[in-house]
Amino acid sequence: MRVVIVGAGIGGLAAARGLLAAGHEVTVLERAPELRTGGGAITVWGGGPAVLADLNVDLRGAGRRLTAIEARTASGRLVSAVDIDRLRAGLGTPAVVIPRSSLLARLAEGLPEGTVRFGTRFSRLRECGSEVRVWTEDGTEHTADLLIGADGVRSRVRVALGGDAEPPVTGMASWQGLIPAPVDLGSRGLMMVGRAGDVGLSPAGDGLAQWFCDVPWPPATACDKPLEMLRERYGDWASPVPELLEALSGVELEAFPHHRLRVRRWSRGRCVLLGDAAHAMPPTFALGANQALEDVWVLLRRLSADPATAPRTYERDRRRRAALASLIATRSLAVAGPMTVFQGERPMRMAGAVPSRMATRGVAALHHRISNRLRSERPGHDHG
Fold first, then answer.
1. Coil, strand or helix: which one is 360?
2. Distance (Å, rounded) from C-alpha 186 to C-alpha 66?
3. Per-residue model confidence (pLDDT) at position 347
4. Quick one: CA dihedral 153, 159, 165, 169, positive or negative?
5. pLDDT digits (tens, 9 = 90+) for 207-264
6. Distances (CA, A) of 1 to 41, 124, 222, 232
7. CA distances in angstroms from 30 to 16, 35, 118, listed in the order given
8. Does domain 2-167+259-375 have CATH number 3.10.180.10?
9. Do 137 and 71 meet the contact criterion of CB atoms below 8 Å apart?
10. What is this structure's pTM?
11. CA distance to 4, 64, 73, 80, 276, per residue, from 112 (Å)
12. Residues 381, 379: Cα–Cα separation, whole Å
């Protein structure tokens, strides 16, 4: 089968690896001149590490494995902790914070030269019976048996299939990135939650830390001094927030608005969408990249079973779980409005009555509900 993939992000490269291993002919069209190096770090957990292992992507020596994820109030009080070692025993997979650029490099390892066509921008498509024809902006034409749109939240392939061009924002944005770790976190990920919003900090290996601060979006006024805004919003929070804000002095800051995208159709004819192109979601709980890997795993299995029906059965098998992940990511935290009342000190302390073991079980249950890959190993469940 000839497959054209638009987008060399995590989902696109993962799909390319799996399809090549299955004996298909693959071309990846990527508008950037080279593999992207920005975007900070991501947390690979739940079904994500299992999918990467299936694709023979070795994460050893990359990023930092977590042993715990703690939730604290703005004053620093511990309210809950997820025991990642116990979670790993239950799920069979670790939790790894890894720079996005490192993960992309490992996904690209071993791909035949010329598989990824850099500096190539998708322009349009035309379905022709059992084939789909794809044109790039320079006029080059590709003919494929399957087109995969893995080109992100502003997917051109989605637009060509009749979807929205500009996905709506949720009212939040994350200022985030990778910096030298301002404090020694060990192997703990940390999220601090208060009425103003939330701040996170996680070790990412090699002395680096992934940080984020969530704020309302779009801003009420032009935000040309983001560090001043973050200090005003979070400057009186407990350690390590002051250390983080101090470490951001002189760092170029970038905002990433949160989107939630609900696409009416993920597939049409010989064309499918995956990852953010099909179900963009806020980065809360680090579900987005792992859901893209889940998409790849299901699509590969459906193609191996019946290529003719694979687009439809892939969408059927993935849509409900991706929608649940998106809903959880969207509604779990707030930076404005009535929901912030529940993020105050007293409500958060009451939430702290939940033992670590129960919190860990809750996270494990969540991952099983949103993962096709993990559910495939449970007796009595469909493998899709």
1. helix
2. 9
3. 85
4. negative
5. 999 999 999 998 866 678 999 999 999 999 999 999 999 999 989 899 999 998 888 8
6. 34, 21, 50, 56
7. 12, 9, 5
8. no
9. no
10. 0.95
11. 15, 29, 49, 46, 26
12. 6
